[in-house]
């Protein structure tokens, strides 16, 4: 839909999640109340499942995969809720449409950034394979080449990804919009507002955790404050405290990563690094072989985790993209004379 550029506006400016539904406004029917309770109850249970069993579960690729899957389910739930509320696009306020498209394009940007980092980490796995190959060689220059391969791996793995760094301004803009203006006198609008607030909080939280992990720093890892009146508020607060606290503690201890599988690889690499500095003596041969086997096992676990997480991020990307495309399709069908300018091209760049 072609419209002049407007200044930045809040995420969904049709309600304030800090306010309970007031008797002075539109009353919720039993059906609307049931829909809202179901959505928020499911969200609370979903957040509860993300609570790590212990600190060793923060941040494993399996937890990150579970968190991404949770986002996929929550975003699918909001689509279902919109359908159940019987809010067709033709009834949407124009600014709702603009904001939905704006937010979706930001989420696509974040997905692209995370995918690029997972791809970069996967390239690091290939460099590690060169290191392992050099260690298996019987050449007299075996350890010379191994040290060179190891140096290439380490330089690659500690490098910063500018795409991940660019996620912070996007996340900040979404977080700043959490304080929303007063809702219109619409019962369905209030239900959608409350649900969308929950979607946004979970999305910002998970994406901030991922961005901190991928950037190698917790300086931009902020705590979100949510109204205590929301049924999922306590479980979210507990989850946020557990994750953010462990991430900050890990970085403050001097670790270069909070990614558990990558840290395990680094531990194995350091053991071998000490052994190959001056060569391996006859009495160290078996220990050396065992250390190589251990590194190979940890490297494979790291690679499998990367692949599974990358697939889940792609699923989330597709959910956001298909929702966006469906809205654009509905706009074209409902407004045949309109010319939506927002879209996505296959080269991987979001078009605004």
Commentary on this structure:
With 352 residues, the chain is mainly alpha-helical. The chain has one domain. 66% of the residues lie in helices and 1% in strands. The protein is built from ten helices and two strands; from the N terminus they run ααααααααααββ. It has helices at 30-49, 61-84, 94-136, 142-157, 162-165, 167-176, 187-215, 233-252, 260-276, 285-334; strands spanning 343-344, 350-351. Strands 1-2 form a two-stranded antiparallel sheet. A hairpin with a 5-residue loop joins strand 1 and strand 2 (350-351). The radius of gyration is 24 Å and the shape is elongated. It comes from Cephalotus follicularis. This is DUF793 domain-containing protein.
**Mind describing the biggest β-sheet?**
2 strands, antiparallel
How much of the residues is beta strand, in percent?
Answer: under 5%
Number of helices, counting only DSSP H or I runs of 4 residues or more: 10
Question: What best-fitting shape do the alpha-carbon axes yield?
Answer: elongated
Number of strands: 2
What order do the SSEs take from the amino end to the carboxyl end, as H and E? Answer: HHHHHHHHHHEE
Low-confidence stretches: 1-25, 336-352
Question: What topology, given as strand order, has the largest sheet?
Answer: 1-2
Spatial gap, N to C terminus:
11 Å
Query: Approximately how much helix is present in the residues?
Result: 55-70%
What is the average per-residue confidence, as pLDDT, rounded to a whole number?
Answer: 84
Report the structural category.
Answer: mainly alpha
Radius of gyration over alpha carbons?
24 Å
Whole-number tally of structural domains:
1
Protein name: DUF793 domain-containing protein
């Amino acid at each position: 839909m072609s419209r002049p550029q407007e200044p930045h506006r809040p995420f969904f400016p049709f309600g304030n999640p800090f306010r309970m539904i007031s008797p002075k406004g539109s009353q919720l029917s039993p059906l609307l109340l049931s829909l809202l309770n179901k959505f928020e109850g499911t969200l609370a249970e979903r957040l509860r499942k993300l609570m790590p069993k212990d600190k060793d579960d923060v941040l494993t690729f399996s937890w990150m995969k579970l968190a991404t899957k949770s986002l996929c389910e929550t975003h699918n739930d909001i689509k279902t809720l919109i359908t159940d509320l019987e809010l067709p696009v033709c009834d949407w306020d124009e600014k709702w449409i603009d904001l939905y498209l704006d937010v979706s394009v930001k989420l696509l940007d974040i997905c692209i950034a995370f995918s690029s980092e997972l791809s970069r980490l996967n390239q690091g796995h290939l460099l590690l394979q060169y290191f392992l190959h050099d260690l298996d060689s019987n050449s007299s220059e075996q350890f010379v080449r191994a040290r060179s391969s190891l140096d290439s791996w380490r330089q690659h793995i500690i490098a910063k990804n500018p795409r991940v760094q660019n996620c912070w301004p996007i996340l900040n803009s979404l977080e700043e919009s959490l304080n929303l203006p007063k809702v219109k006198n619409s019962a369905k609008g209030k239900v959608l507002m409350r649900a969308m607030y929950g979607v946004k909080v979970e999305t910002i939280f998970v994406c901030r955790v991922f961005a901190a992990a991928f950037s190698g720093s917790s300086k931009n890892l902020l705590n979100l404050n949510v109204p205590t009146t929301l049924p999922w508020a306590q479980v979210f607060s507990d989850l946020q405290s557990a994750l953010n606290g462990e991430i900050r503690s890990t970085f403050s201890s001097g670790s270069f990563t909070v990614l558990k599988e990558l840290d395990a690889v680094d531990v194995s690499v350091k053991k071998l690094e000490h052994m190959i500095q001056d060569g391996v003596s006859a009495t160290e041969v078996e220990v050396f072989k065992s250390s190589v086997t251990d590194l190979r096992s940890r490297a494979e676990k790291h690679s499998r985790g990367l692949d599974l997480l990358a697939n889940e991020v792609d699923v989330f990307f597709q959910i956001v993209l298909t929702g966006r495309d469906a809205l654009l399709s509905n706009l074209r069908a409902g407004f045949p004379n309109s010319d939506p300018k927002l879209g996505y091209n296959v080269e991987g760049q979001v078009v605004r």
